Amino acid sequence: MLLAPPSPPDFVPLDPRVIRLWRSTGMIGVGILLLMSLGPLLGLGAGLLGGVSRGFLLWLPLAAMGGGWTWWFPKRRHQAWGYRMNARVLETRSGVWFRVLKLLPLSRLQHADLHRGPLERAYGLASLILHTAGTHEATHVIPGLDADEAVRLRDQLVAAGGDDGV
């Protein structure tokens, strides 16, 4: 009698606080772009359209689209992200439009780093950066982990990693 192989565990989602982090960083980026575009659009409105207020009317839809994008996209990105691990492989999935599935054989893991920028620290999050042997796609990043979970996962991955002599 053949036994079915055990089903893989479900993907573990990122911490939901990463949505707020991504919204914050998105608003900073969009805010900078909007400030940089305000002057040229006001100038365009004054020169070609007959008034500064018409240039402002060109800028408002850009601001609305940027704000809408930074509100909608992080939640969708969070839904697309996940990871799971067994005794031999760490699998990550990501990508909203282009789905990316990555397999990291634990025997190829060389070292693991934690990254916590100022905004990540403010939200209590960390990114786990995994380095493997090779040149192409040799670094894997799992963003948006609870800081304690990132430490636990790092330690678990390092303990499970093999010794392939690289």
Give a verbal description of the structure.
The protein is α+β, with helices and mostly antiparallel strands and 166 residues long. The chain has two domains: 17-79, no CATH class; 83-160, no CATH class. The chain is built from four helices and six strands; from the N terminus they run H-H-E-E-E-E-H-E-E-H. The strands form two sheets. Strands 1-2-3 form a three-stranded antiparallel sheet. A hairpin with a 5-residue loop joins strand 2 and strand 3. Helix 1 packs antiparallel against helix 2. The longest helix has 31 residues, at 17-47. It is elongated. It starts with 16 loop residues before the first helix and ends in a 6-residue tail after the last helix. The mean pLDDT is 87.
List keywords for this structure.
6 strands; three-stranded antiparallel sheet; alpha+beta; elongated; 2 domains; 166 residues
Measured between the Cα atoms of the first and last residue, the distance is 41 Å
Give the overall shape, derived from the CA principal axes. elongated
Compressed to H and E, one letter per element, the order equals HHEEEEHEEH
The radius of gyration computed from the alpha-carbon positions, rounded to a whole number of angstroms, is: 22 Å
Task: Give the total of beta strands.
Answer: 6
Approximate strand percentage: 15-25%
Low-confidence stretches: none
**Which sequence of strands runs across the widest sheet?**
1-2-3
Report the biggest beta sheet as strand number plus sense, adding barrel if it closes: 3 strands, antiparallel
Number of helices: 4
How many separate domains?
Answer: 2
- Mean pLDDT across residues: 87
Structural class by secondary-structure content = alpha+beta
Helical residue percent band: 40-55%
